[in-house]
Amino acid sequence: MLNSLNHLTLAVSDLDRSVAFYHELLGLKLHARWDNGAYLTCGELWLCLSVDAQRTPILPQHSDYTHYAFSINEGDFAAFVARLEQAGVVSWKVNKSEGDSWYFLDPDGHKLEAHVGNLAQRLAACREKPYKGMVFFD
Question: CDD domains, from UniProt (predicted)?
Fold first, then answer.
């Protein structure tokens, strides 16, 4: 049986640009780099960047809602968002859920989110105002 998410691999078109984005701008820890890839971590999450000649940036309006959310402390949120906005990072969605979130794009158009909160907080908010057809299992 599965017991956790092992790693996430993102296809990138420009390794230098992506390493700068994830390591220097977002602050992920860089562990290894080679001609066509890099390994980074964010907490326990292992992130692999892999150069793929077929990868082209995708505009948010041409992709689905799939995105990758990273946790951030409430006290760090405003400065983080300001830093990304100052660097010209594009936001793709306005937050409408509980907890602060900022939705942004990486250089290849992968949809990302910085989120303050956790599943327990989300479920508590949903118990107060459930989504249409929502059923709880705990």
Answer: FosA
